[in-house]
């Protein structure tokens, strides 16, 4: 009888091993299938949630950027989205990719900006398509096919607000922004 009990225990163990192996195979296949529709970080708006929204320049002029999905607006006044703006496509780069594009190394980041996390670093490539000034379309007279703005965004989140220092990577000018929406 002792032999039979051991045999039953062994068969139970063998059954559970086989069942566990089948379940692991199913979960692995399901996981691979579930990931088949994912996109890279440039297309994933979850990665860009921090930069999405409206940013007001810190000069007090009321001007700023508005980012919605893969579009941007540069507004003379963030309160008026119907006049005096530039509008177009935007590409987002985040983290290590943005740092590489800006020529910023991990060592430089840690020594210069020790509290800044790589996921709070963005590069935006802005490709304006339309210019509206005083209610008139000025695209044909004020823009050429070579217009492309590349900006480095260093974003800091704190309990009161979200702020950014933004560098123009062509002219190396710098501006401060506060996220308002």
Molecular structure report:
This protein has helices at 2-35, 96-102, 106-112, 139-142, and strands at 53-57, 64-68, 71-75, 85-94, 121-133, 136-137, 149-157, 162-168, 174-179. The model is unreliable at 1-44 (pLDDT under 50). The N and C termini lie far apart (75 Å). β1 and β2 form a beta hairpin. The protein has 181 residues and is α+β, with helices and mostly antiparallel strands. An 8-stranded antiparallel β-barrel has the order 1-2-3-4-5-7-8-9. The chain is built from 4 helices and 9 strands, in the order αββββααββαβββ.
Q: Helix fraction?
A: 25-40%
Low-confidence stretches: 1-44
Shape: globular
Order of helices and strands: HEEEEHHEEHEEE
Give the biggest beta sheet.
8 strands, antiparallel, barrel
Describe how the helices and strands are arranged.
Elements: H1 2-35, E1 53-57, E2 64-68, E3 71-75, E4 85-94, H2 96-102, H3 106-112, E5 121-133, E6 136-137, H4 139-142, E7 149-157, E8 162-168, E9 174-179
Antiparallel strand pairs: 1-2, 1-9, 2-3, 3-4, 4-5, 5-6, 5-7, 7-8, 8-9
């Amino acid at each position: 009888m002792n032999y039979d009990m051991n045999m039953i225990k062994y068969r139970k163990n063998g059954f559970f091993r086989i069942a566990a192996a089948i379940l692991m195979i199913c979960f692995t296949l399901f996981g691979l299938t579930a990931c088949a529709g994912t996109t890279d970080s440039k297309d994933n708006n979850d990665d860009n949630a921090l930069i999405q929204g409206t940013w007001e320049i810190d000069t007090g002029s009321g001007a700023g950027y508005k980012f919605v999905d893969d579009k941007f607006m540069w507004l003379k006044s963030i309160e008026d989205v119907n006049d005096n703006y530039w509008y177009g496509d935007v590409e987002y780069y985040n983290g290590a990719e943005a740092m590489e594009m800006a020529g910023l190394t991990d060592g430089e980041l840690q020594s210069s900006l020790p509290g800044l996390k790589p996921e709070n670093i963005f590069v935006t490539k802005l490709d304006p398509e339309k210019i509206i000034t005083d209610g008139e379309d000025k695209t044909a007279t004020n823009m050429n096919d070579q217009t492309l703005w590349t900006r480095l965004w260093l974003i800091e989140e704190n309990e009161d607000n979200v702020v950014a220092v933004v560098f123009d990577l062509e002219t190396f000018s710098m501006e401060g922004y506060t996220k308002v929406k």
